[in-house]
Each structure stands twice: as C-alpha cells, then as structure tokens.
Specification:
The protein is mostly helical and about 170 residues long. Helix content is about 85%, strand content about 0%. The protein has four helices and no strands. The longest helix is centred in the middle third of the chain and has 123 residues. The N and C termini lie far apart (about 150 Å).
Length: about 170
Amino acid sequence: MPLTPLDIHNKEFTRSFRGYDEDEVNEFLDQVIKDYEAVLREKKDLFEQVNTLDEKLAHFNNIEETLNKSILVAQEAADDLRGNAQKEAQLIIKESEKNANRIVNEALTKSRKVMMEMEELKKQASVYKMRFKMLIEAQMEMLQTDDWEQFAGNEEFDEEELFKEQQEQEKS
C-alpha cells in the first residue's frame, strides 16, 4: 500500500543521541508532503485524462468500425449498382442492335420496292412514249395524204370514211 501525505506527516521517529535536527527534519518532511501531494494530484489528473482519452478512443473506435461497415455496405451497393447498370447497358445495346437491324432491313425492302416500282414506271413511260410517237406519226401521215386536201377543199367530205381509214391504219 502506497504512502499517503498523512502517513508521512504522522510518522514518528525514535530519538537517539546526537540524531538529526528535529526542526530541519520536520521542515524537510513538510516539503516532501507538499511535493508528494502535488505528485498525487498530478497522477490523479493524468489518470482522469487517460480515462477520458480511453473513452474518446473507444468512441472513435466505435465510429471507425461503423464507418468501415458503412463503407463496405456502400461499396457492395455500388458494386451491385454497377453490375445492374452494366447488365442494363448490355440489354439496351442488344435492343438497339435489333432495332437497327430491323430498320436497315425495312429500308432495304422499301428500297427494293421503290426500285421495282421505278423500273415499272420506266417501262410504262417507254411504252407510252412509243405509243404516243406512233400516234403522232399516224397523224402526220394522215395530214400528208390526199384525203386531207379533199377535206379541206371539198365540203362534202365523208367523216365515216375517214374514221374507217384511221382505224385501218392503226391496225396495220
């Protein structure tokens, strides 16, 4: 058991012949008591500081542990989110590729259809051009015949006869 200032103060020494000066010893002991009390107060303060720091350390350790757990949970959530985002991105890319292929195929089909329609229109235009040309040539031949001269100079021109001649020319 450690000494207390009261133990030092109450300590009685046996007297011997030609011993130390009693006042000087008491004065020294009073100084030792003061210093010992100061050391004990300082020890008590330091002990309280250590306890306070231990409590703070425990509190911060608890916070650190909570933060570490939170970081792990957040990291797992971020990993899950990243994984889901990558899966969703892959699905979007596949869907986009399918749509792009469908659009290209539709465009090719429409393009082929338009090309076929254009070829048909060219054929029809060619046929129309040829028929129109034949009609104009027939009309020109009719204008150059003597019948036209007769019609222009003779008021008794037979329209039925002219119509029959035109039909015969068209057939030939």
